[in-house]
C-alpha cells in the first residue's frame, strides 16, 4: 500500500499543477498587438521665389602671348654689347637696343660702296659731257638729219647710268647691313628666352632670343554646347565683326597662390573656326589688356600660368536657384506640401554651376523644397520642418 501511495503522489501533484496553470492562463488578460509609432522625419527647407540670374560660364586655360616673335641675326659677327635688360624675363620698350654686333667690317663696306658710287657718278658725268660734245659736233656739220645713237654715245651713257644705279644699290645694301648690326626691339615687350650673350660669334640666321609683346596676353578657353547656348561669341566675316564689340562677353580670370586669390579682367575677342574632334568643344580666345600694370595687390601673370575663367553669360529671368544638396539624381527635388507631406518633382533645368542648379519650373512662388536628403522617402509621407527664420517664416530661397 505504501508503495502505491509513493508512486501515485508525484503524479497527483504534477496533474494538479498543470490544472492550476491552465486555469490561470485561461482566466488572464488577452494581449493586443500595436504598431510601433515612428516619428516623421525632420527636414530643413527653403521657400522658393523667382529671381533674375546672371549666368557665369566657368572655364580654364593657360596664359599665352598675344604677339610672340623669334629674334634672328641678319648679319654675322661677334656680339660686342648686350643691353642691361637683355635677360629672361626682362622688359624692353619699342626701339630699345638689345644687342650690338661688331660693325667694323660693315662700316668699311659702306665706305667702299660710297667711293664706288662717287666713281660711277664721275664716269656718268664724263660720258654725259662726251655725248653733249658729239651732239654739238654733229649739229655743226649735219644740220638736217638727227645723229645716230652711237655718234652721240647713247649706249655708253646708258651703261654709265646703269653702273651708277648698281653702285648706289650696293651702297644701300652695305648701309642696311651696318644698320642690322644693331638689334632693336620691334615692340614693347618682354624676353621669353635668351639664346646668345656677349662675346659669342653669330652667323646669319642664328636665333638670338624669343620675345613677346607686353600690351596684352591671351587665354584659350574650351566651351561645351551647353555653355555656348548662354554666350554671345565674337564672330567675324571677311574681317568684319558680325557681333558688335559692345556685346562681347567680359571675363574674370583668377589665380590661387597659397591661400590668396588674385583676379584680372578680360574679354572675349575671337572664336576659333573649328570644334575640337576629341573633346567636341569649341575654343574661344580671351584677352587681358595691360596685364603688367603696376599693382601692389597682385603678382604679375606669367606665360604658361594656369588660370580659372568666369565668362559673363545671358541674364535669366523668373527662374529659381536651387542648392545642389536639394537635388536627387539629375533633376528631382522633394516638395513639401502645405500639409507637410513630401512630393517628388522633376525640374526643367536651364543652367548648372558648382553650387546651384537654375530651374525654370515646374515650380510656384512660395513652394518649399527640402534641403535634407531623404533618399528612400516615398511620396506622401509626413515630414516635420525644423528651420525657421527670426521673423517666424520658413527658410527663404537665397
Automatic annotation (TrEMBL):
This is Efflux RND transporter periplasmic adaptor subunit. GO terms for cellular component: efflux pump complex. One of its GO terms (molecular function) is efflux transmembrane transporter activity. Residues 115-184 form a coiled coil. NCBIfam families: RND_mfp (TIGR01730). Belongs to the membrane fusion protein (MFP) (TC 8.A.1) family. It comes from Pelovirga terrestris. The lineage of its organism: Bacteria, Pseudomonadati, Thermodesulfobacteriota, Desulfuromonadia, Geobacterales. Gene3D superfamilies: 2.40.30.170, 2.40.420.20, 2.40.50.100, Helix hairpin bin.
Amino acid at each position: 500500500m505504501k508503495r502505491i501511495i509513493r508512486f501515485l503522489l508525484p503524479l497527483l501533484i504534477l496533474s494538479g499543477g498543470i490544472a492550476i496553470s491552465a486555469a490561470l492562463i485561461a482566466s488572464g488578460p488577452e494581449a493586443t498587438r500595436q504598431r510601433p509609432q515612428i516619428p516623421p522625419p525632420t527636414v530643413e527647407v527653403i521657400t522658393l521665389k523667382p529671381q533674375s540670374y546672371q549666368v557665369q560660364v566657368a572655364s580654364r586655360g593657360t596664359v599665352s602671348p598675344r604677339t610672340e616673335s623669334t629674334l634672328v641675326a641678319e648679319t654675322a659677327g661677334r656680339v660686342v654689347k648686350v643691353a642691361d635688360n637683355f635677360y629672361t624675363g626682362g622688359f624692353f620698350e619699342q626701339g630699345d637696343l638689345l644687342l650690338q654686333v661688331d660693325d667694323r667690317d660693315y662700316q668699311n663696306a659702306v665706305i667702299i660702296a660710297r667711293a664706288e658710287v662717287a666713281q660711277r657718278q664721275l664716269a656718268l658725268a664724263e660720258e654725259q659731257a662726251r655725248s653733249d660734245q658729239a651732239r654739238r659736233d654733229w649739229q655743226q656739220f649735219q644740220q638736217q638729219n638727227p645723229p645716230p645713237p652711237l655718234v652721240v654715245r647713247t649706249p655708253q651713257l646708258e651703261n654709265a647710268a646703269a653702273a651708277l644705279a648698281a653702285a648706289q644699290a650696293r651702297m644701300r645694301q652695305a648701309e642696311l647691313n651696318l644698320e642690322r648690326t644693331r638689334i632693336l626691339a620691334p615692340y614693347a615687350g618682354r624676353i621669353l628666352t635668351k639664346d646668345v650673350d656677349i662675346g659669342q660669334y653669330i652667323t646669319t640666321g642664328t636665333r638670338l632670343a624669343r620675345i613677346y609683346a607686353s600690351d596684352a596676353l591671351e587665354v584659350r578657353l574650351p566651351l561645351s554646347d551647353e555653355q555656348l547656348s548662354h554666350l554671345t561669341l565674337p564672330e567675324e566675316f571677311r574681317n568684319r565683326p558680325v557681333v558688335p564689340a559692345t556685346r562681347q562677353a567680359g571675363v574674370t580670370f583668377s589665380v590661387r597662390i597659397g591661400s590668396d586669390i588674385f583676379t584680372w579682367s578680360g574679354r572675349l575677342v575671337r572664336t576659333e573656326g573649328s570644334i575640337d574632334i576629341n573633346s567636341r568643344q569649341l575654343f574661344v580666345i580671351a584677352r587681358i589688356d595691360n596685364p603688367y600694370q603696376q599693382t601692389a595687390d597682385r603678382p604679375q601673370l606669367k606665360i604658361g600660368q594656369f588660370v580659372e575663367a568666369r565668362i559673363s553669360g545671358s541674364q535669366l529671368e523668373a527662374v529659381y536657384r536651387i542648392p545642389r544638396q536639394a537635388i536627387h539624381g539629375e533633376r528631382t527635388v522633394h516638395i513639401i506640401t502645405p500639409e507637410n507631406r513630401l512630393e517628388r518633382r522633376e525640374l526643367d533645368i536651364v543652367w548648372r554651376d558648382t553650387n546651384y542648379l537654375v530651374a525654370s519650373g515646374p515650380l510656384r512662388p512660395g513652394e518649399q523644397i527640402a534641403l535634407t536628403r531623404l533618399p528612400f522617402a516615398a511620396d506622401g509621407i509626413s515630414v516635420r520642418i525644423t528651420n525657421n527664420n527670426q521673423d517666424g517664416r520658413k527658410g527663404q530661397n537665397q
